[in-house]
Design brief:
single chain, 214 residues, mainly alpha, flat, transmembrane helix, membrane
């Protein structure tokens, strides 16, 4: 139980921090309502399940290398900038819809895949799992074996489901009071935030590529 509770608390503290996945959750919640949170969390959890399996069989050490972090940073930055630019473009061209008809027609699979891409494009996601996540998982394994790893993973993903479901419920319920002009402004701001995150990742990768300045 200690392994589960600790994993939940650490995961919850990370989920609550502003980031690209929270931005993505807000944007999708405005489009399809409260169900966005569980769908985003599901995609995120599936990606983390793959990572847990990979880390468990010994890939974690490779994700900690400067080359891996640099590649993830470049690719991640490009993906985030693309997502942000697409959001701003759609807002500028008036392609955004918040009515319930368009929301009900949204494809759940697209949101799940999108959340996986947004998560994977964040270099800090891989770094956290290679450093913190790997250590927590191996400690859980040493204490309880495979059952400990299951408890660790369950506690971690439940923190994500709890937070993002709450966020999407609140935003999904209140989006009815947001007119299209305000909605477009919000999307533009969110798009700019994603671009800023992406630019930051690219800058960090460039610094790693150039090496320390003497």
């Amino acid at each position: 139980m200690y392994t589960f509770i600790r994993s939940f608390i650490i995961g919850f503290s990370g989920a609550m921090m502003p980031g690209s996945l929270l931005t993505y959750t807000v944007e999708k919640s405005l489009k399809i309502g409260p169900k966005a949170g569980p769908l985003v969390s599901l995609g995120h959890a599936l990606l983390e399940l793959v990572l847990v399996i990979l880390l468990f069989i010994g890939v974690g050490q490779y994700l900690e290398t400067p080359l891996a972090q640099m590649i993830i940073g470049f690719l991640g930055g490009a993906v985030l900038i693309f997502f942000g630019g697409s959001m701003i473009r759609d807002a500028a061209k008036g392609k955004l819809q918040i009515d319930m008809k368009s929301a009900s027609a949204a494809k759940s699979g697209g949101i799940i895949l999108g959340s996986m891409l947004v998560s994977a494009s964040n270099p800090y996601f891989a770094v956290w799992w290679a450093a913190v996540g790997l250590g927590l998982m191996m400690e859980a394994y040493n204490l309880m074996g495979v059952a400990g790893v299951v408890l660790f993973y369950t506690g971690h993903i439940l923190s994500d489901f709890s937070w993002y479901t709450l966020v999407s419920f609140i935003i999904g319920k209140t989006r009815k009071f947001i007119n299209m002009k305000i909605y477009r402004i919000i999307i533009v701001v969110l798009g700019a935030v994603l671009i800023a995150f992406g630019a930051g990742f690219l800058v960090s990768s460039v610094k790693m590529l150039l090496g320390p300045v003497s």
